[in-house]
Amino acid sequence: MSDALMENKFIQVITKISMKVGQQRHLSAIKESFILVMPLFLMAGLAVMVSFALLPMIIKENVELLTKLQGWGAAINNGTLQISALLIAPSIGYILAKNAKFEGPLVAGIVSLASFVMLSPSSVSYVDANGIEQTIGGVLNFGDIGSNGLIGGIVVGLIASEVLMFFAKMNLKIKLGPDVPSGVARSFEVLLPILITLSLLSLGSLLLQLLTGKDLMQMIVFLIQTPLSKVNNSILGLMLLFGMGIFLFSLGIHHTVIRAPFVDPIMTANMNENTLAFANGQAPEHILTGGFIDIFAQMGGAGATISLVIAMILFTKHKNSNQLGKLSLAPALFNINEPIIFGYPIVYNLPLMIPFVLIPLFNMGVGYILMRIGIVPLTVVAVPWTTPPIFSGVIATQSWIGGAVQAVLIAINVMMYLPFMKISENIERKMAQQSQ
């Protein structure tokens, strides 16, 4: 078997497996849910930046006025980041049911929300002024329904929606007769599946607690969130997962197949916690966040391709490459790189696939080291993905250093892309000559 045939067969196998992963309905529901709620998280980041970074620079003397105005950002923060798990659970339930063509996707979302609240801790413990531990019942804690509960929200949303749809298919309906309004009748038709779903989840959590000492939410944290967090919160683990996603993109399969379900939940939680710490005047803890990925690995889009665009404009004598680079510059400034990926192309173009995968990993390694030793501040503001490079670094880190490092990396990446671009052009030129 020739090397070319073996390579082609390998690519076909990888493509087939990746397509199945991308089309898996539970992973797809997770991806779509994060897309749905992401604008709220971005709004929270901008509100925190305005309230706790810009306003203190403008209003320096009047502390009372500053505190009142910062309440605007704090309120937005409470309604977005602080309830992120509470938002994601019904979103997943709704989208999973909608994609499954279930007749009542909104009901599935509501049941998922009810299940998440039902299974979340409803008490808060604290130590009073006398050093005695006190417990307040009948409350939900931001710490449980916010970033710390994201994985729990995902799992409960998936389970509740699946259980509801399973029993709804068994035609367990209560018929009220023809004289009852249709809206009321539909509500009663799903009453038994809802009752069974909530009862089973509550009973399952109770049995888990009796057998293991942990309820369902604690078990989710123990079995899923903690191990996943350990992988993603290591730079090598994150680079492995992200690199796999970028490699798939070089085969024409969007990298969110890997990133959305396996990377985004933990990176979003880390970003939210950094934002909350910044808003509260505390030092952020997480180097690895969604913002970290965006400002170091995705300048100009996946593969940090703004540097390839610059190389195509400044350092090529190939007419087609130069023209495509000029046409692609404006989209690249806003991190849109499909013209390069599919038009140059990078997809299935082995010389360019190599830097496309490796350069983002190089940038992430450099960024991690610089943040680790304290040269670059950690990311504290989630920026829209269309924010141009350099500006995104300044906003995300709340420091000009973030933007300056981006500029240096872009220049280095141009030099890294350059030899592979020339190899690709030489291959194209020779193939054109052979076809004449």
UniProtKB/TrEMBL annotation:
- Where exactly are the transmembrane stretches of this chain? 34-59, 79-97, 106-127, 147-167, 188-211, 231-253, 295-315, 341-362, 369-387, 399-420
Q: What Gene Ontology cellular component terms go with this record?
A: plasma membrane
For this protein, the record's InterPro entries field holds:
PTS_EIIC, PTS_EIIC_3, PTS_IIC_cello, PTS_Sugar-EIIC/EIIB
Q: Where is the PTS EIIC type-3 domain?
A: 10-420
Q: Which domain of life is it from?
A: Bacteria
What is its subcellular localisation? Cell membrane
Membrane-topology annotation of the record: Multi-pass membrane protein
Q: Which stretch is the leader sequence?
A: none
Which ranges of the sequence are coiled-coil?
A: none
Q: Name one GO molecular function term.
A: protein-N(PI)-phosphohistidine-sugar phosphotransferase activity
Q: What is its main location?
A: membrane
Keyword entries, A-Z: Cell membrane, Membrane, Sugar transport, Transmembrane, Transmembrane helix, Transport
Q: Which GO terms describe its biological process?
A: carbohydrate derivative transport; phosphoenolpyruvate-dependent sugar phosphotransferase system
Q: Which Pfam families match?
A: PTS_EIIC (PF02378)
- Summary of the function given for this chain in its UniProt record: The phosphoenolpyruvate-dependent sugar phosphotransferase system (PTS), a major carbohydrate active -transport system, catalyzes the phosphorylation of incoming sugar substrates concomitant with their translocation across the cell membrane.
Protein name as catalogued: Permease IIC component
Q: Where is the organism placed in the taxonomic lineage, from the top? A: Bacteria, Pseudomonadati, Spirochaetota, Spirochaetia, Spirochaetales
